[in-house]
Design goal:
Layout lengths: L12 E6 L8 H11 L3 E5 L5 H15 L4 E5 L2 H9 L6 E4 L6 H8 L4 E5 L3 H7 L9 E4 L16 H11 L4 E4 L7 H6 L4 E4 L1 H4 L4 H15 L2
Parallel strand pairs: 1-2, 1-8, 2-3, 3-4, 4-5, 5-6, 6-7, 7-8
Helix pairs in contact: 1-2, 1-9, 2-3
Amino acid sequence: MNRFGHGNMDLSVYLVADSGSTAGRPLPQVVAAAVEGGATTVQVRCKDVPARDFLAEVLACAEHTAGRAALLVNDRVDVYLAARAAGAVVDGVHIGQSDLPAEMVRALIGPEAILGLSASRPEELAALARHPEGTVSYLGTGAVRPTPTKKDHPEPLGFAGFAAFAAAAPLPCVAIGGVGHGDAAEARASGAAGLAVVRAVCAAANPAAATRSLVREWAEAGA
């Protein structure tokens, strides 16, 4: 069984590996460095990229994450299924509110896969309560701050808003949106299960060192 499945997640240092944020470097290269630095979960996000190219990126990233970090596919259930059919170790999917319904995605990916859902509004929590238990694995909650990597993000919550949402949520919540170095203590104090970062690693001069720093900050904040 995959050691990073639905019931065995480590979301603490969560890299959203965004193909448009790598400062011109190949995405798998950044992912490899992040895994070397201790990233626990990697979500591959390739907006506006043809499915064939997205699949190639996922397959290349899986070579670096297999057995070392959970690998999730952003939005595209078809790419996840294709990668799995190709024999890659992929652990799940992360979807947004406008993607396929969570119950349908769960039926497609099976009970053991990780299914993340973006959620930050009270009405989205109410909708979540109508899903059968085990449908969604965790919530990506934000944006905590404004971020240029996701222009359609909801109104920023701040950590106070994040804390209120996380306290009401029945699932682990990962803080996302404009977060990075220096935020681990406030994130943990706000009830976050992890920090989901993009530019803090993808745009760093040394992604491995940047990830290592985040891992250290997260551990120290919990000490």
